[in-house]
Design goal:
Elements lengths: L1 H7 L4 E5 L4 H12 L5 E4 L6 H10 L8 E4 L2 E4 L1 H9 L3 H7 L6
Parallel strand pairs: 1-2
Antiparallel strand pairs: 1-3, 3-4
């Protein structure tokens, strides 16, 4: 988990993604639509993508992408992120993580 932890600790919003994943693109677009600038790691392009993917699975990410971290906390995948959005809880999380300003 050391690699994921190191990558996540650098930014307020981190998304682990794959270029071939349409839900990854959807989640990136959603979070960006609020004015956040997420750091996106494309696992199919990252030199240590396989190792990162193993770590994400070890954290309980199934499927492994998209994996969304806000404020260094694992939010989950597309379902969890969309659920937070529909409940009106995604923007407050982004605000608390200083990823967006009002």
């Amino acid at each position: 988990m050391a690699m994921v932890t190191a990558l996540v600790n650098e930014r307020s919003v981190v998304i682990f993604s794959k270029n071939s994943c349409c839900m990854c693109h959807t989640i990136q677009t959603l979070i960006s639509s609020f004015g956040a600038n997420p750091t996106v790691y494309e696992l199919d392009e990252h030199p240590k993508g396989h190792q990162i993917e193993k770590e994400l699975k070890g954290l309980g990410c199934k499927p492994s992408v998209p994996a969304v971290f806000i404020g260094q906390e694992l939010i989950g995948g597309a379902n969890e992120t969309m659920t937070l959005h529909l409940k009106g809880q995604l923007v407050p999380l982004l605000l608390r993580a200083n990823a967006i300003w009002v």
